[in-house]
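seq:
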Amino acid sequence: MRIAVISDTHLPSLIRDPDGLGPHLAAFLTGADLILHGGDVTRPSVLEWCEQFAPVLVAQGNNDEFEDRRMAPRQFLDVHGWRIGMVHELRPEDRPVDVLLDDALAGERVHILIGGDTHVERLEHRDGVVVLNPGSPTLPHHREYRLGAAAMLEVTAAGLRAEVVALGETPGMRNPTQPRSLALPPPPPLGRFQGPREAAG
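struct:
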């Protein structure tokens, strides 16, 4: 299953929808089976734009002051043995993974933890959990509207491939995205989290 992950589109604003920055995000989303949006959509019209490519689930952001059947404060998904959890805010993201899981997911344990809010991409595998922030496709690193970042998860029973990509360059405006990727074997069973804190005690 191909799961596209985006966040912090903050549209419409200076541009109406992502097409205002060119065809890059549309090309990236083409072929996805599902789109996960990490929040700060700001208007349902962006979700309608996304749904021309695949179904959408959204983690409600602090700027999402509307109701939508596709949106909730937390989203959970089970795909081929992988448990995915998504919220809008994980900051500070460099906290211990057990603290992130407790604060963001109220005790739920996952293999993949997705957040947005910072507009800065992150992809790492720490203490058995993939921590992913796809950045922003429209306001990368909180700079002016320009092409930014998105992420793709290729999820199978045999393993996971995760990638953060730079969507391209807006003329005269550098894309600050730092691409990164990782690959993992099949997921271990989800039990009680065993991170450094428990191992030490």
